[in-house]
Specification:
With 305 residues, this protein is mainly α. It has helices at 2-14, 17-36, 46-70, 80-89, 96-103, 107-130, 137-150, 160-170, 177-183, 186-200, 205-233, 242-269, 274-304. It binds fe (ii) ion.
Length: 305
């Protein structure tokens, strides 16, 4: 047990792809068990819970030291423009992966990109629901408005989960969550794990709000290029892209509402949490950056082979 723990914990410090994949896969399975497992026989036992805590501790120690060395965590958050400026300064903003998707990617690569997004896109409803627990009424009102949009404003056919599954069907893609997870890179798994880690512990609440702000703010511009590529590659096929078209616009409203109605008032009440907001914000941007870098490199390497 001690040896296994030390191997996993070293993964974060040695940047070994194989070890990182093992560590993030294990964490991913543990989070899945905690969030979705309905069979008591498969609950995490005490030994596994300890292992999970060690892994989380090592992982966060590494992530925090990376972020603290690069970003300003003291800047007051009192207007939307300031957070937008921070996003635009980050290297993940207007990532080249989306230029590649817009102009060069083929059908197979689009399908791979969409499958890699599938777990977070389908589980996002649940992640948003987790944000509701223990927050103020004003924050609840904003999260409920976002959830109502996730729920197609009451129309099941317009649920974002349903729209995304329809896109998968139109592309002849079969969604098997376990298969997608098994085939993902550690960078992709780490992105899902970051959602889980920040969503499930109340002490991470403001970090989680930072992660959600970064997510809603980053996607719209990327999705415009994504749709440009979809229209190029699938111009002769009937593919329902409502999921992505909807997120091009709705995420802009959600990001604004999130910052104005949740983040700014919460931080005005609790200025000691400003660093937490920036930590969640930058951990998400760094995580997506590593993931997009990996995917672009993977596509380019295969293209050259
Ligand atoms: Fe959505």
């Amino acid at each position: 047990m001690e040896l296994v723990n030390s191997v996993y914990s070293q993964a974060f410090h040695h940047h070994n792809d194989h070890q990182l994949k093992s560590a993030h896969l294990l964490l991913n399975n543990m989070y899945y068990s905690v969030m979705y497992n309905e069979d008591e026989a498969f609950m995490l036992d005490e030994k596994m819970q300890k292992r999970m805590a060690i892994l989380e501790d090592e992982w966060m120690r590494y992530e925090k030291s990376e972020c603290l060395s690069r970003y300003n965590f003291t800047q007051e958050v009192n207007e939307v423009a300031l957070v937008e400026a921070a996003l635009k300064r980050h290297n993940v903003y207007h990532h080249h992966l989306f230029d590649y998707l817009a102009l060069e990617a083929n059908e197979h690569e689009f399908k791979q990109f969409i499958l890699n997004e599938s777990v977070l896109n389908i589980d996002f409803f649940d992640y948003l629901a987790l944000a509701l627990i223990g927050v103020s009424d004003q924050t609840r009102a904003e999260i409920m408005a976002n959830l109502w949009d996730e729920a197609g404003q009451g129309n099941i056919q317009r649920f974002h989960t349903v729209l995304f599954r329809k896109l998968l069907r139109d592309l002849d893609l079969t969604y098997r969550r376990d298969m997608v997870i098994a085939n993902m890179s550690w960078q992709g798994l780490a992105g899902i794990n970051l959602f889980s880690y920040l969503a499930r512990y109340p002490f991470n609440k403001i970090k989680y709000f930072g992660l959600l702000a970064a997510t809603e703010m980053l996607d719209p511009d990327h999705y415009i290029k994504f749709m440009q590529g979809m229209n190029r590659v699938f111009k002769d096929k009937k593919i329902d892209c409502t999921y992505y078209l909807e997120h091009q616009t709705i995420d802009i409203q959600h990001a604004n509402g999130w910052l104005k109605n949740v983040v700014i008032p919460e931080l005005a009440k609790n200025p000691n949490k400003i660093a937490d907001f920036w930590l969640g914000f930058y951990m998400r941007l760094d995580s997506v950056h590593r993931y997009y870098d990996y995917l672009l490199n993977y596509f380019l390497t295969r293209q050259a082979a």
